[in-house]
Design goal:
50 residues, mainly beta, single chain, three-stranded antiparallel beta sheet
């Protein structure tokens, strides 16, 4: 079984006056960016979905 240590980052940006949340998952050991997603909303459901 292959397990990785991951960390998730969230950043709030303003794009053309709208709030956009950018989510990124990074491998702790290699600092490799594994995935990134931008959403217009922020909720517990969005965090779980990411």
């Amino acid at each position: 079984m292959f397990l990785k240590k991951l960390i998730a980052y969230e950043t709030k940006l303003k794009v053309n006056g709208d709030t956009v949340y950018v989510w990124a998952a990074v491998d702790v050991d290699t600092r490799e960016l594994l995935t990134i997603k931008a959403t217009r909303g922020r909720s517990t459901l969005m965090q779980c979905y990411f």
